[in-house]
């Protein structure tokens, strides 16, 4: 079972609260889909932090070259 605390930390990195983030060579990050695997945690010398490799899937928008988007901003 994946700890619940992993999800907010990944979302902070790829989709900050002030908007959606564009990651170079990845695309427009929309939302975290799921966490598939957590590997063993390590604590490196001189660091008190736990370092863990996390495998996850993210919903990403990658437009084609010269693709145009048309939308209307709706007020609620």
From TrEMBL:
Would the keyword Transcription turn up in this protein's UniProt record?
Answer: yes
According to its UniProt entry, the protein's GO biological process terms are: transcription initiation at RNA polymerase III promoter
Provide a GO CC annotation, any one.
Answer: RNA polymerase III complex
Q: Which UniProt keywords apply?
A: DNA-directed RNA polymerase, Transcription
Say if the entry is tagged with keyword Transit peptide: no
User: Where found, per UniProt?
Assistant: Nucleus
Concerning SUPFAM superfamilies, the annotation shows: N-terminal, heterodimerisation domain of RBP7 (RpoE)
Matching PANTHER family: DNA-DIRECTED RNA POLYMERASE II, III (PTHR12709), DNA-DIRECTED RNA POLYMERASE III SUBUNIT RPC8 (PTHR12709:SF1)
What this protein is called in its record is Uncharacterized protein
The organism named in the record is Paralvinella palmiformis
């Amino acid at each position: 079972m994946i700890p619940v605390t992993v999800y907010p930390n990944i979302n902070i990195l790829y989709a900050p609260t002030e908007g959606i983030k564009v990651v170079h060579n990845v695309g427009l990050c929309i939302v975290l889909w799921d966490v598939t695997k957590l590997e063993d945690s390590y604590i490196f010398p001189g660091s008190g932090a736990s370092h863990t490799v996390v495998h996850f899937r993210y919903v990403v928008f990658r437009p084609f070259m010269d693709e145009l988007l048309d939308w209307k901003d709706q007020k609620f």
